[in-house]
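**Backbone shape codes:**
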Amino acid sequence: MAGAEDLLFHDVTFTIFTGPTISSDEEQRLIHLLTKDGATYIPRNEDGSIDGVKRHTHIVTGDIEFPEYSRALDYNVHVVRPSWVETSYEKGRQTQPRQHSPDPSMFFREVIVSCADLPEGDKDAIIAGTLALGGLYSAPLTKLVTHVVAMDMHNDKCRTIQAKNLACKIVLPHWYDDCLKLGKLINEGPYLLPDPEILRPNFDEPVRARSTPGLDGALSAVAGAPPAYNPPISPSDSRKQLVVFKEKKVLFSKDLNINDHLAKTLRHLVSQAGGSLTANVEECDVYIGHYRDGMDYVAASRAEKTVGNLSWFYNVINRNKWTNPLSKLLHYPVPRGGIPGFADMRISLSNYSGEARIYLENLCKEAGAEFTKTMKQDNTHLITAHTHSEKCDAAQEWNIEIVNHLWLEESYAKCSVQPLTHKRYTHFPPRTNLSEIVGQTPIDISRVRKLYFAAKEKTIKDAEPGQKTPHPFRGAVRAPDTSPRKGGLAVSSATAGGRSSFTAKEAETETDPMDIDNDDNDASEFLPHGPQTAKKRKTRVGSDAAITTPAMLSRHQDRETSPPTTGRASKEKALNSLHALKDDLALYQREMKRKGGVIHGGRRTAEPEEAPAATTTKTAKTTRNKRKSDDMGDSHAEISETEIAGVKGSKAKKAKTEAGSKILYTMMVTGDERWLGNMKKEASEAAKLRALGIKLTAEPAECTLLCAPRILRTKKFIAALANSPRVVNISYLDTALSKNTLPDIESHLLEDDEAEERLGFLMDEALERGEANANRLLHGWTIFVTEKVSGKFETYKEIITINGGTAVPYKGRANVISGPRVPPSEDGDAGAEVDNQGGDGELDRVYLISSTSDEEVKLWEKFETEARKKGLEPRIVKTDWLINLAMSQRVEWDEKWELKEELVPGWNK
């Protein structure tokens, strides 16, 4: 007979939280599975709380919304989903609990992935990333697999899924890549094989918004009307109906501006939910306040009480379910005066609707920015769910920053403006409306702690005694008069304490000075239960420094750019003890730093920032096998007036620096097809070059060594010259690979006399000018480009940007052209590039780069008229003007580059 220790769950002591994902029947089934194999079950208390967290080894739940979650992590109690029980039982051993975590930051937690005929590098990256972010990997196709990642349907796993009609999704690797770029789980629909939307000809069309489950009850930090209060028949019936605050003491801050009537309602709600009021911050379990300041807020936060706002309180009462106020940005007290850096911003929204739009509007206001329903040229930012709208077009023309909502959410969560250089804030996956992931960002409590309540480490128990305990609602502001005033202004009393939907600052100015309560008011109706005489506090938080907030310490803003945490201080300590995580994380980080990510081979030399847009319904396999290698799929063809292969530019991720191998050169290869369709060879030779000190890149801005068979008019070659790299013949690469040593650069310098004569510049002189210009040849210039120009706008934007200019798409809108350019000597930023900018005559000129299609020619007259209104000389030019400028590294004029209507064959107005 087997001993107790031979049973599968002999060392498990557990409880289970029921909810939307765990029904009562499911609870009984899980209890049976665990206990029959040796586990010990501890029932929860009558009010749903856990009796002695540290007695448990596991808590089975579908989410982390229970009060004891932080303490469970402190005691290293495993919080797992029911899948941990199922998987352990199926495998006959206890599986890793972290792979079954309900923590929403582990966004692959519901994913069990299998791969089908993927390159080895892609497969390794997908496996490591899935494990590190809470998912599971299965080599064979089992009934538990939720996603199969494949490039096409021509493999056994996909055929089996189709034949047996299995409930398993077959997705392109692009879905996985976009999830990682955003740090969120997005809908798989556009990536589903056999006919993925992102590979259809019309993949570029706008997408309707889906539901936003992350916003449940968290649209605003300003509470609306309180939940309806129905007096219970008896206290026992009350607790059966509403027990979410059972045996908890709640403190309401006076900054809530609570009036007498609302105070009475709140007392009844707390009492009905099984709790009681207190005025002593040391005694309270829950602190409810509006702002992140004041002695009580600091004391409650330092003592790790539950801290939320009135909006959170109402949401918990309405749902009769505990939630963590840190999990929703607008359920936590707001910063008085907003987040430093937002005050001068004017933000507009596009492509968000319904609850998502209301939430983002409120978030803008709480951050301290000015929100505008309409967008004008003085707007600073446009937050959009995708880039298909008139506002997005106008923002491009007006040079307004275009970002997704993650920038706003993470700036608010981290208490500082996040840099727009983070690619996740400007990433818009095709056929995806990002409103579906609105509201999933939690408060970063570690950043809040640093700024708002970590001035001193003194705890409540260390504070000085002697201060009287204030009344829980004393000093509150009565509800403003709602009767009509002059001008028709009235404030709704339905909001908390008379708060309206306008800002807190406005609310304060609307409050009648005569409405302030005095200490003699009769408060017996809403005193906490027990003696009505206010107790003396045992403690007092010390000096003013203890409650210093960013309003006084804005100069100390932390500028870290780490990803947002889950918003739980105690979780950080618990994660440090999960040693089993480090192997998977190391593998994941190693694979993700490989060139190519997960959609172009995990061992590629470079990774495109976005998947190349497919223009036909080719199969994924055809797309994979026929990808371009010369310029990583975006600029293999030379740029000419009639034929330009300029698709979206590629971006190279930072290469992993190997120990003891210093990077001597960052090489970009163009015009060579040695790796075309052969990713294994590419990966092998890239590793060999890296060992020699050469890092391959697809990013012109990183290039210090440009390798090509001749002078080319590819986008990469042209853009790289702004960096003034050493330019070598392809023989340099051949020699390095064949001899496994670094050749002498001087012996392999690129020489192409024929191209220099044809293009009208000398390479040596251009490189010297490029070094002097230091990527600032077009500094201060705004160059307009027609949207339909041959080679696409993005091609010329990259060339203009790397040379220090601003590229703006021109669509014929008015007021997009500013006045004459400011001379460099006046803007205090003059440099050597001034000598190469064409002289003072260029200050009064403005350029439009165009082709000669009818659609583009129609714009010329509008451009010329608008330019002359601003006192500028308009010049409409061929793309060759910019190409010559970028290759020679100087601005010069030749009439052969000018476009005129009379020179366009067959053109009729």
Observations:
- The chain has a mean pLDDT of 77.
